[in-house]
Amino acid sequence: MQREEFIQQLWLDYVHQHPDLGGLRLWPVETPPEYLTLLTLNHGPWAMEALLPTLVRFGYRPLQRYAMADRGLLATLLAAPDDGAWLVLAELQLGTLSRPPREALQQLVSQAHAADTRGQNLLCRGRPWPVPDWATFQALTAAHPLAGWLAAMGPRLHHPGFDCARLGQSLDQLDGALAQSGIDGSADRHHGILPVSPLLDYRFYPGPARRLIFAEGDEHRVTAGGLALVQKQVSANQERCAELLLPHHTRCELT
To answer: Which strands sit side by side in the sheet containing 73-79, from one edge to the other?
Structure first.
């Protein structure tokens, strides 16, 4: 697998989960996202340290590690080798969950088929373990929203982030266009998984809830992710928005 194929598979999976967002035509289709936020967990082949060598082979370069203890997350920012989307790989730390939800999630993950634990496309092949029952999903979501999300969705692209400057419009203009399309955003800087630096204006747009069939055959609507818009507050700054995305105080040593 090459990087182009990896990105294509990520995007096809995203569009399958979010046809409303993937079908938007508010900006040129060929405009790449500024960054892609990938969500995983620190367990087995889906752990960050197991995934990073593959991403490096694809040409990505780890630039910075971030730690958000209050959210139980680690994140690595990876630069693309060209003008394409950077990656933000976020990893839920299972040790931050209390024992019952941690064991429930570990039990689910342990049921992944062996064939789904190998290969270079572990982030774009969908949920590799059985879907939980509704009660387990609710308990995991109550313990940590991302634990419930991972249980139901598996490690994958949670949302792309688009730089308004690269789209040629202001955040307010795009926000209005999305609202007219029936997609409402949130300025809550904690809504899209990770905290966002005050150096950027930011909106997160949850995708419409979709039906998911749970283990006992019952259907419930869940929100599978969304998309984000970012805009620099300091136009003279030469860094890419992806470099400014996460607050400086969350940085830690990259080894």
So the answer is: 200-206, 226-232, 156-163, 35-41, 86-92, 73-79, 61-68, 251-252
> Which tokens is 113 given?
């088929």
Cα separation, 198 vs 189, in Å, equals 9
What gap in Å lies between CA 247 and CA 198, rounded to an integer?
7
75/37 Cα distance (integer angstroms): 10
Spatial distance between the Cα atoms of 227 and 178, rounded to a whole number of angstroms: 11
pLDDT of 189-230, one tens digit each? 666 688 999 899 999 999 888 899 999 999 999 988 899 999
E strand segments, 43-170: 61-68, 73-79, 86-92, 156-163
Question: What does the alpha-carbon distance between residue 17 and residue 185 come to, in Å, rounded to a whole number?
Answer: 18
pLDDT single digits (tens) 172-195: 999 999 999 999 998 776 666 889
Q: Report the percentage of the chain scoring pLDDT > 70.
A: 96
Question: In terms of Cα–Cα distance, which of 98, 96, 93, 108 is closest to 42?
Answer: 93
**Span 6-64, pLDDT tens digits:** 999 999 999 999 988 888 888 888 889 999 999 999 999 999 999 999 999 999 999 99
Counting Cα atoms < 13 Å in the Cβ hemisphere of 187 gives 7
* Nearest residue to 76 via CA among 131, 36, 114, 136: 36
- Nearest to 54, CA basis, from 18, 16, 93, 10: 10
Strand partners, 204: 186, 228
